[in-house]
Design brief:
The chain has about 725 residues and is of the alpha+beta class. Helices cover about 45% and strands about 15% of the residues. Helix 4 crosses helix 7.
Length: about 725
Amino acid sequence: MRSVPMITAGELVKLVGDYNPRVDSVLLRDAYQYSREMHHGQYRRSGEDYFTHPVAVALILAEQKLDDATIATALLHDTIEDTCANYGTIEAKFGGEIARLVDGVTKLTQLDLGGTEVRQAENFRKLFMAMSEDLRVILVKLSDRLHNMRTIKALEPEKRKKKAVETMEIYAPLAGRMGMHWMREELEDIAFEVTSPDVRESIMHRFDILKAEAEDMINRITSDMQKVLEEAGIEAQVIGREKKPYSIWRKMQEKNIGFARLSDIYGFRVITGSVNDCYAILGEIHRQWRAVPGRFKDYISQPKSNGYRSIHTTVLGRAAKRVEMQIRTRDMHEVAESGVAAHWSYRDGVKAENPYSADSTLWLSSLRGRFDEESHEDFLEAVKLEMYADKVFCFTPKGDVVKLPQGATLIDFAYAIHTRIGHACVGAKVDGMLVPLWTQIKNGQSVEVITAEGQTPQEVWLSIAKTGKARSAIKRSLKDLDRSRYIKLGRALARSAFEQIGKRASDRALDTAARTLGLEDRYELMVRMGRGELYADSILNAVYPDISPKEGSEVSWANAVIGLETDQRFERARCCQPLPGERIVGIMFRGKGVVIHAIDCDALVEYENQPERWVDIYWHGGKHPASYAVTLEMTIGNDSGVLGRICTLIGERKANISDLKIVDRKPDFYRLEMDVEFRDVEQMHALISLLDIESNVAEVARSRDPKRVAGSEISHA
């Protein structure tokens, strides 16, 4: 199948000329014609002429009002990689600037951002080097990925899934970090449809039902708000929109709530002329409607690091429905929509000046400064944190502002102040109250770190810390502490892995693995295994590349936990019911052995001042049997066949119901406690997600009760 390009060269020049009257029409026409000639005879997987792709990418960038050089680069971005053109021919025809941009996009296209951590980190370094030299390179690459995702159905299922995962993990967060939220939302939603089609379809189905029940909710709320602002004499535009399916899904996961309880599925923006009007509008809205506590954020006084500014608030609107609102000026809205692209956009033939445009070069400079300072793992972790995380703003006792990623803990705060403070941290007060070190910091809180002489970082801190700076400092401090313990743990892990394939973890085998992996000796290999930096599969493949563990072989209960002494008993804590795949810690009890808790279990606060009882342990990395019971709390509709369908669904997911108790029975619903046996935490999350979108399941959640005593699953390890 062949098709003509989406638009002609003349139409593209006119589109660019509408926002840039000084458009270089000769440049764009020449780039258009050259790309068309170079790609002649090439076709996409869909059967379309390949040339339709660079034209579509150019259109995406033109919609963002970008400069002529960026539009020309979009037209030429695949010529070096896919045709006989090279850097020299592009430079001769279109000049050095465009040649450098096209070459930069080509190099990004050739990067494999998946693969091993070392390769991934190195390629991320190259990505950010290219971005720091000229941000327009990443703008073209993101637009290239967006068009490829819009046409992804032409790919084979396996490649489609791989591209979708890569988009969800790398390109969508990067677009968000660049402030291009519209692009992030579209990339995420397309990828979501590929990776989780059933979940997305269920959300869309429920969403359609809710829209039908709410009738014309957006228009009515928009009209209500516009009327309030007109009566107050404030000129503003109110825009309502439905949230994307993936945005709804993410909120369900973050808040651990079912679709039935998610009421704020509509978003409203109020766009006005000045900052003063923004705060005046906020006052009028809060006078008219009741504000929802804990749902107010002022990103005007404390902008996000990507330049985003807006006031967020949630109020109870018509029929007590939650209404999420964003209030911003027109300049703020332009940055919120375009992100860093606003810095390169044109108005009336000149580069647009926006006082709120983010200077992403500062962020990129900070990352470049880490290139030679951090290990591959630490650099990759820092980059992903920067890309994914929103920020929280908290204060020292003196009133200094500390900016941290969302989800950061008190450990992260201590290291953000100074590495020495972090190392000596023994506790902290939040707003004057003593709280555990793993407490997550919220916006506006005041934090005081408590230190003690002689304190050193603990291994468990690595599970608590979220920022790359804190984790790097902790790892450096722990590196030389108790080396023999890591060697012992690593040897136990290696022995277990080799036994699975019927081999022995001899010194000679471990030396061979170390040489193959480029490590100093077998002791370095075992230390890395003990620290969790190197996995058993890598060692087995290094020694026996043609042998893999027997299919279907399962980890026995006796070998389920690594890190215990010989013949040391252990049991799972009933309060948190930890599963393989979760980070765990052991607490020693006289007569009971070791009780295993999930690292985030609330019951651990009781042992915070007894570090001598804490034991570093890990789940075995192999395949576990589905025999780990977890209590699920459910609220389901009291209709015929509902419970049977739920039980069938659980069975289809290869899980087993070991106990069921009806806690409360009403005419319209049941409340249940169901003990379900799982293989690992991933299997549990998958089942909860499926149950969560069932129309007759109002609520489903994992039960965690600090009052429950430890379980009875006792063994010798």
